[in-house]
C-alpha cells in the first residue's frame, strides 16, 4: 500500500469542527475496507542478519568489527583472551578487544522489527500514552502508538508540524521489508556543535572541510566552515561511494571465489591422495604380513627339520657310546670272573678270544667335542631372519 500522509487520513488543523471531523474520519478499531488485516509473514528468517553473529541473539549493544562482522558485547568479552573475530579470525586492533564502532543500523532495525511484531500480534498494540485503549495509529516521528483520543491531542499539539501517521490496519497488511523502508527517517542528524546538539538543533548542512554536520546558525556565523553542501547530498554521495566500492569488491570477489574453489579442490585432492595412500599402506603391510607369515612357517619347518636331524644323530652317537660302555663293563666283569673262577683249561681256550676283544676296545677313543661331527645348527635360520 502507498504511504498515506497524515493530511489524507485526518484533518491537519482541528479548529472549529475539526474534532467532529476527526471522530468521523479518524481510525476505528475495526478493519478498514481498503486495507483488510492480514497475518504478517514470518520475519525471523529474512532478518537473521540483525542478530549477533556469535550467539545469534538480539542485543542492544552490537559492535561492528573492522572485518565488518557484528558481535555483541557478551561475545566480545568471551573472546577477549583470543583477540580475534570468531567468524573470520581477523585480529581485533583494539587492545581491549572491544571495537569502538556501534552497529547502529542493526540496533535500530531490531527496534523497528519489534514495533512491526507488535503490530502483527493478534491483540494488537495498546496506546503508548493512555495505555488503555487499543492503538489505531502509528506516528513514525514520535514512534508511538496512539488511540483515537490521544491522536486527536497529538494532532492539536503538532498542528504546525507534518508528522507522518498511518493506520495500524494498513501497517499490519504490509510486509516487514516495506515497514522498515517506510519508517526510515530521511534526516535526523543533529548539529555537531556540542552546545547545539544538546539543544536539538537539526542539521541540514554538511561542511566538507571539517567533515561535520552543521545547523544553519553555525554555517552562517562561523567563517571557518566552508565549503558547504546539503546533508542529503552528502549522504547520497556516501551511499554512492559505498556502492562503488562494493561493486569493485564484487569484481574482486570472483577472483577470491576462484581461489577458494581451487583451494577446496586442492584440499579434496589432498584428502583423496591421503585416503589412497592409507589404503596402499594397508595393502602393502598386509602383503608384508602374509610374506612374513610364510617365512615364519618355512623357518619353523626348517628349525623342526634341523632339530629332528640333530636328535637322530645324537641318538645314534649315544647308542654307539652306550654300546662301548656296556662292552667295557662286560669285559671288566669277564676278566674279573676269569681271575677268580677260571681253570687253566678255560683260560687257555678263552683267553685269545677275550684278549682280541679287549684289544679292540683299547683301540677305541672317545670322540672329543671339537672332533665329533656336530649336528647342523640354526645358522641358516638366523641369516634369513637377519635378511627379513
TrEMBL record:
GO terms for cellular component: nucleoplasm. SMART domains: RING (SM00184). Residues 18-37 are annotated as: Disordered. Residues 127-168 form the B box-type domain. It comes from the Eukaryota. Residues 28-37 have a biased composition (Pro residues). This is PML protein. PANTHER family: BONUS, ISOFORM C-RELATED, PROTEIN PML. One of its GO terms (biological process) is suppression of viral release by host. The keyword Zinc applies. It comes from Chordeiles acutipennis (Lesser nighthawk). GO terms for molecular function: zinc ion binding. PROSITE patterns: ZF_BBOX, ZF_RING_1, ZF_RING_2. The keyword Acetylation does not apply. InterPro entries: PML-like_CC, TRIM45/56/19-like, Znf_B-box, Znf_RING, Znf_RING/FYVE/PHD, Znf_RING_CS. Residues 246-331 form a coiled coil. CDD domains: Bbox1_TRIM19_C-V. Keywords: Coiled coil, Metal-binding, Zinc, Zinc-finger. Residues 52-89 form the RING-type domain.
